[in-house]
Design brief:
The protein is mainly α. It has a domain of about 80 residues: Arc Repressor Mutant, subunit A (Orthogonal Bundle). Strands 1-3-2 form a three-stranded antiparallel beta sheet. The chain is elongated and about 70 Å long. The chain contains five helices and three strands. The longest helix has 27 residues.
């Protein structure tokens, strides 16, 4: 376990994965939830994720509208540095996940009902 990831964070990450989020997305989201702005290197160091995994997670989170990116001025050459922060409270993100799960359940129930109509 890394410095920034507690047992509670591990548990929350597991729950988010069981809710359907990919591991890298779950771990990134958990790390970000109590922080104002983070850089991808901080996420890598504290979540046991590699740089490509963090990049993929950020793409997913930005597409969902859960994270926004800010370019940070950097001296010299090299890769640009980006700051990331949640674009909405974590509780609202959980509500969206809950809604998605409930929609999936509803779809499965309709499927079961339709299947039974053929039995």
């Amino acid at each position: 376990m890394k410095d920034g990831f507690t047992k509670e964070d591990e548990k929350l990450s597991e729950l988010l994965q069981r809710a359907g989020l990919p591991r890298n997305v779950a771990r990134t989201l958990v790390f970000m939830r109590k922080r104002d702005e983070v850089k991808s290197i901080e996420i890598e160091k504290n979540t046991d994720l590699r740089q490509p995994e963090v990049s993929i997670a950020m793409k997913y989170l930005r597409e969902k509208g859960w994270v926004k990116k800010r370019d940070i001025k950097k001296e010299g050459k090299g890769r640009p540095i980006h700051g990331y922060k949640l674009s909405k409270p974590f509780s609202k993100i959980v509500e969206e996940i809950e809604r998605d799960i409930r929609n999936e359940i509803s779809d499965k129930e309709k499927l079961i009902k339709e299947l039974k109509s053929f039995a």
